[in-house]
Specification:
- It is built from 5 helices and 9 strands; from the N terminus they run αβαβαβββαββββα.
- By secondary structure, it is of the alpha/beta class.
- The longest helix has 24 residues.
Length: 205
């Protein structure tokens, strides 16, 4: 069905509004890690993972879409035999608050009797990671390790902990290096924290 002029106009207005919002968010965010610091963190993550998993012939599961950037940076530093696959599980649906867990894509590689490294961008409440670990165990994985670029310190206890952690932050909403703000800013070369008064700032748009 051909889009009407009114539909095109409405889409154009929405696009303009979200781009204004993105610009406002970037103007008021603070940088937690620049590209150089991230590079050092990735090096350390690779060393830690290698020390434990180099002789295990693991399957690395990239959690889409957030971990796609960290996977691209980390994998070339893992100089041992491994297989790569991905799983697409999300609670955010391009929003900023987690909702119900949605399984979009399961791994294609068999996990039976395999050691698995689950690679994600951020360990927030732990709901997604717990679900993926449970899935891998049901598929017969002999062991599951988890590696995250960011582990958030929250007031509530998490159901899981990560085996390999790059950097620990507070509860702020983050973007950059694969983490998004409403589907945008995954490509930012650094990690940024959104301002605490974000809702107030958005009222200016």
């Amino acid at each position: 069905m051909e889009a009407s002029e009114e539909n095109r106009r409405q889409v154009g207005v929405k696009m303009a509004d979200i781009l204004k919002e993105i610009e406002l968010v970037q103007q008021h965010s603070r940088c937690l890690l620049d590209a150089s610091s991230v590079d050092n963190i990735i090096d350390s993550l690779a060393e830690d993972i290698t020390a434990v998993c180099a002789d295990k012939n693991p399957v690395v599961l990239c959690v889409m879409t957030g971990a796609v950037v960290i996977a691209g940076l980390l994998l070339p530093r893992l100089n041992f035999p491994l297989e790569l696959d991905y799983v697409h599980v999300t609670r955010y649906q391009n929003g900023t608050k987690g909702g119900d867990l949605s399984w979009i894509k399961s791994p294609s590689v068999s996990l039976l009797n395999r050691e698995v490294i689950i690679l994600d961008d951020v360990l927030d409440e732990g709901v997604t990671l717990k679900s993926i670990i449970g899935y891998c165990e049901k598929q017969g994985a002999s062991a599951c390790y988890s590696a995250v670029l960011i582990d958030k310190e929250l007031q509530t206890k998490k159901p899981v902990t990560a085996d390999f952690v790059g950097f620990t932050t507070g509860p702020e909403y983050l973007y950059g290096l694969g983490m998004d703000y409403k589907g945008y800013l995954r490509n930012v070369t650094g990690i940024y924290a959104c301002p605490n008064n974000l809702e107030e700032l958005l009222c200016q748009i």
